Amino acid sequence: MNKLYIFGFILVCNTAFAQKHYGKSGVDVLRTYSQNVLGKNIGYYVEFTNEANREVDAIEWEAYFYNNFKDLKGKRKGSWSSGNFIKPLKPKALTKDLQASWVDGAEKVYIKITRVHFVDH
Questions:
Q1: Which pTM value belongs to this model?
Q2: Residue 56: which of 31, 101, 24 has the closest Cα?
Q3: Cα–Cα distance between 64 and 55 in angstroms, integer?
Q4: Among 5, 19, 63, 65, who pairs with 74 as Cys (CB 3.0-4.6 Å)?
Q5: pLDDT digits (tens, 9 = 90+) for 9-31
Q6: Nearest-angstrom CA–CA distance, 110 and 18
Q7: Is residue 69 classed exposed, middle or buried when 0-12, 13-18 and 19+ CB atoms within 10 A define those classes?
Q8: How far is residue 108's CA from residue 68's CA, in Å, rounded to a whole number?
Q9: Cα separation of the two ends of the chain
Q10: Cα(32)–Cα(96) distance, rounded to whole angstroms?
Q11: Which DSSP category does 85 fall into?
């Protein structure tokens, strides 16, 4: 019986993560779009918003790829940073990024922000 409870707990934890994006330090994910060609997720588009009171100059995240049955098909790291042509993300502003992924059998992508760097740090 204890094994059944442990299995149920793991299943609930995995299912809960599979259904939403995770922000960090006031930076949130607004939406994602993914592009599939011949059964392969070739890339995704993500929009971030800065709800913090400081400018952001770098964001790192993990992208989790799922099929329509909610099976995890792959995981990739992604990042965005300001530079010569890209300005830091001001408070209450949003930015967009496009990433290549090449994941077999994935239709959906969910983002978990892992690190945020502010201009004043």
A1: 0.81
A2: 24
A3: 27
A4: 65
A5: 444 444 444 468 999 999 999 99
A6: 7
A7: exposed
A8: 7
A9: 51
A10: 10
A11: S
